[in-house]
């Protein structure tokens, strides 16, 4: 019963984060940064609690943990190149092969673990949420067979990086642009655009290199070990 309730809360939790962010911007909430961090943290918590409540076996946990670790390691390895990271590509791969929930958890774990190197802070729940959302939406697209089309895969890879940037930049604007003014918000988004575009290009490059061979190997592992991840959303 608990697992079903938590699973049913996953989509509302995902939707609540941008809604609260938008509401804070519209109403000019002074403590918007703190409030949105709490909401993002709660959304991430719903997914981890839902996964735990499903009582996954060790072999079901391992793909998510390994891909999350690879995402974190890739982020650290490419640290010298700003925003040129493989994290989004690995989140997309996880969602495509193992499902929406796994895609979300891989993104969340990659952000959390890599921030032990880059530094933890109020941005961590937002990074966990944003990269988790990238993996979750990849699972949605994969369910419909859209990621089997290279053009759709690469287009989503590029746009997912812009989505990640939109969320992180939105949180920054709501929390740290004082006094709040839409002109200042637009300027902050414009200033961040080159970095977001670099992130998008990097995601496409890593998808072009990794997606086909890694997916083939992961699909083989999934079949060999009969990995049926408990993902009620699928």
How many structural domains does the protein architecture include?
1
Which strand-content bin applies to the residues? Answer: under 5%
Number of strands: 0
Question: What is the H/E order?
Answer: HHHHHHHH
Evaluate the radius of gyration.
17 Å
What is the residue-mean pLDDT, rounded to a whole number? 91
Counting DSSP H or I runs of 4 or more residues, the number of helices is: 8
Q: Helices and strands: which structural class?
A: mainly alpha
Give the oligomer, counting copies of the same chain as homo and different chains as hetero.
single chain
Residue share in helix = over 70%
- The rough form would be described as globular
What's the CATH topology label?
Arp2/3 complex 21 kDa subunit ARPC3
**CATH class category label:** Mainly Alpha
Q: What characteristics describe this protein?
A:
mainly alpha; globular; 234 residues; Arp2/3 complex 21 kDa subunit ARPC3
Describe the protein in words.
- With about 230 residues, the protein is mainly α.
- The chain has one domain: Arp2/3 complex 21 kDa subunit ARPC3, CATH 1.10.1760.20.
- It has eight helices and no strands.
- The radius of gyration is 17 Å and the shape is globular.
- The two termini are about 20 Å apart.
In short:
The chain crosses the membrane at residues 32-49, 61-78, 129-146, 153-174, 186-214. With 234 residues, this protein is an all-alpha fold.
List the helices and strands and how they pair.
Elements: H1 2-27, H2 32-53, H3 58-77, H4 87-98, H5 100-118, H6 123-143, H7 150-176, H8 182-224
Helix pairs in contact: 1-2, 1-7, 2-5, 2-6, 2-7, 3-4, 3-5, 4-5, 4-6, 4-8, 5-6, 6-7, 7-8
Organism: Eggerthella sinensis
Keywords: Membrane, Transmembrane, Transmembrane helix
Pfam families: ECF-ribofla_trS
């Amino acid at each position: 019963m608990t697992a079903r309730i938590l699973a049913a809360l996953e989509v509302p939790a995902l939707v609540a984060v941008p809604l609260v962010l938008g509401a804070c911007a519209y109403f000019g909430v002074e403590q918007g940064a703190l409030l949105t961090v709490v909401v993002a943290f709660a959304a991430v918590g719903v997914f981890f609690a839902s996964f735990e409540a499903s009582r996954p076996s060790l072999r079901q946990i391992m793909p998510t943990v390994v891909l999350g670790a690879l995402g974190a390691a890739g982020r650290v390895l490419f640290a010298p190149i700003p925003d040129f990271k493989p994290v989004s590509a690995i989140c997309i791969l996880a969602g495509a092969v193992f499902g929406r929930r796994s895609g979300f958890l891989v993104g969340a774990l990659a952000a959390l673990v890599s921030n032990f190197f880059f530094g933890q802070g109020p941005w961590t729940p937002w990074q966990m949420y944003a990269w988790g959302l990238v993996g979750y939406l990849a699972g949605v697209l994969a369910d419909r067979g859209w990621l089997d089309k290279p053009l759709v895969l690469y287009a989503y890879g590029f746009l997912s990086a812009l989505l990640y940037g939109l969320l992180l930049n939105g949180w920054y604007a709501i929390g740290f642009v004082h006094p709040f003014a839409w002109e200042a918000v637009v300027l902050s988004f414009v200033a961040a655009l080159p970095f977001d575009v670099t992130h998008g290009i990097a995601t496409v490059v890593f998808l072009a290199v990794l997606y086909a061979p890694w997916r083939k190997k992961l699909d083989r592992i999934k079949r060999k070990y009969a990995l049926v991840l408990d993902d009620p959303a699928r």
